[in-house]
Amino acid sequence: LEQIDMLFFGGSAVSGITSAVYSVARSILAAALLHAVCFSAVKEPWSMQHIPALFSAFCGLLVALSYHLSRQSSDPSVLMSFIQCRLFPKFLHQNLEESAADPLPKKMKDSVTDVLKWDLIVCAVVAVLSFAVSASTVFLSLRPFLSIVLFALAGAVGFVTHYVLPQLRKHHPWMWISHPILKNKEYHQREVRDVAHLMWFERLYVWLQCFEKYILYPALILNALTIDAFLISNHRRLGTHWDIFLMIIAGMKLLRTSFCNPVYQFINLSFTVIFFHFDYKDISESFLLDFFMVSILFSKLGDLLHKLQFVLTYVAPWQMAWGSSFHVFAQLFAIPHSAMLFFQTIATSIFSTPLSPFLGSVIFITSYVRPVKFWEKNYNTRRVDNSNTRLAVQIERDPGNDDNNLNSIFYEHLTRTLQESLCGDLVLGRWGNYSSGDCFILASDDLNAFVHLVEIGNGLVTFQLRGLEFREYNILYGNVSQTPLLDQK
């Protein structure tokens, strides 16, 4: 269900089976509503000089719904808490008093309220503007010149925003420059204690992203929708219902992806234009369907590339010291089965299943199909002291509890901080290019933390946080903590 929502409807990752059913159901409901409106608009042929008002209303509704869905979390409990707040305020007030130590529920309730109020205004404005632009016949009267201009502009803006600027901010741009070209004000500080200064290139990055997400790609997709609808109204390819269904699914998916995270959209767009407009023009159905299929194909190819990089790095002969003694013998026996491993990697990329090494060796096994969320079970690390622990437990407690207690304090503080700053830092480009499923390691001299991005929405991020212990005899912490120290030296 998660893959269906991500690949065909443009959704992001989910947090569980209930979240997956909820996400797919709301996407199907939105597609059914759009299908009813669009069918009434294209069932009769129409000319280039007059676009039906019903189709213009369909364009406005499509953009508004896609924007609204991109702003909503896949977790239905967030919306249910808002409904409970409005319908049963006494019940919610009692729950908030019981969980007064956790400020997250109240913050999420306030955030949902603000998002719904903002969406009510923005969706109305977006629908009216999309209706006006579509009804002006500018897309049909200026073709194909408008399409060429939009293609070139989207490719150029995407290349600068998602490739040039992130490379200039890396520690080693293009792996041949020793220092970042665009440095933050705090770059030379050992430990930053104040809020990071907002730099000019961060402002530029945000403005370019806003122009790309809210103006460029909606105009590009509305242009393709209008041309496809005009062709469907005059020439049926697969039947009216199938043509409309494919057009709606492609339009919704591309719009939601552009609103949520358009990092790789310019690559998909550039390949679509070059491949279907120059190399193999005869096999092209329409630009919208070509763009839709290429986005799915490149998503799977990216997953395949990451898996191949992991496999080739793990089975390299000079990495034998990483594994056990069995790794040395298994290396020789695994060479004749390299072709099988390659096809196994392709299968795991298609079905989005993990590829795990067996006994730390070069033999890989395929796991079951699982969601993007890495840790399926939710853990809560809480502080333990005399106020919430029985005396018998304090007497018989484990000596390692003191370390765990220190860990819980640090992780709780780090979690609260990330809840307030992570989404803003991602938007400003301080974490580089990112997508759903990415992992980051936050390193310090005393403790490291592992951040896993689960859901990437338009203005919201769902993440998981796991920590690596204080104790020096922890092998994992020791290996990870050596990396930043060597880099500093």
UniProtKB/TrEMBL annotation:
UniProt membrane topology term: Multi-pass membrane protein
Compartments in which it is found: Membrane
Entry superkingdom: Eukaryota
UniProt xrefs under InterPro entries: Pecanex
Transmembrane domains' residue ranges: 20-39, 51-70, 115-133, 145-165, 214-232, 244-267, 287-305, 312-335, 341-369
Keywords linked to the UniProt accession: Membrane, Transmembrane, Transmembrane helix
Any Gene Ontology CC annotation: membrane
Family: Belongs to the pecanex family.
Name of protein: Pecanex-like protein
